[in-house]
Amino acid sequence: MALPWSQRQGIDRLLPSHFAAPSGSHLPIDYAAENGPALEVRVQELFGLDRHPSVAGGKVPLLLILLSPAHRPIQTTRDLPGFWRGSWKDVAKDLKGRYPRHFWPDDPITAAATARAKPRGT
Questions:
Q1: In this predicted structure, what is the pLDDT of residue 117?
Q2: CA 89 to CA 55: how far, in whole Å?
Q3: Which residue numbers in the chain have pLDDT < 70?
């Protein structure tokens, strides 16, 4: 039996299939992940985001699997603002050495998100 359109819309709003990153990318959310809903995303695509992404009306935080520019995992977190304030400085220092052509801001909360190696105009 198919759901009525209004119920389907409500489900899509509470449990979206994709996350709209600040960079403009639409990334799939993995609801079958072992540790709950998860999102794999390159860390540069989240610059400027000062709240942790969630689903179910903000009740379920996504497990963020933060990736390097080469799409390799660098960190997992359920607290993005805490990551920006905490271990980001050490992670950025390591990434600057491995990926010198990319932008690694000291304050990622105020930086512009990008899906490119460097933001346009830099």
A1: 65
A2: 28
A3: 1, 117-122
Name every residue whose Cβ is closer than 8 Å to that of residue 65 and which is 6 or more positions away in sequence. 38, 39, 40, 41, 73, 76
Which among 49, 109, 98, 110 has a CA at the least distance from the CA of 69? 98
The answer to whether 47 touches 119, Cβ cutoff 8 Å, is no
Alpha-carbon torsion, ordered 3, 57, 113, 18, to 10 deg: -20
- Alpha-carbon span 98 to 65, nearest angstrom: 19
Neighbouring C-alpha atoms within 13 Å toward the C-beta of 118: 8
User: Using CA atoms, how far apart are residues 23 and 81, in angstroms rounded to an integer?
Assistant: 17
Which tens digits make up the pLDDT trace of 110-120? 999 998 766 55
Q: What is the pTM of this model?
A: 0.87
- Which residues, 6 or more positions from 62, have their beta carbon under 8 angstroms from its beta carbon? 19, 29, 36, 37, 38, 39, 52, 53, 54, 55, 78
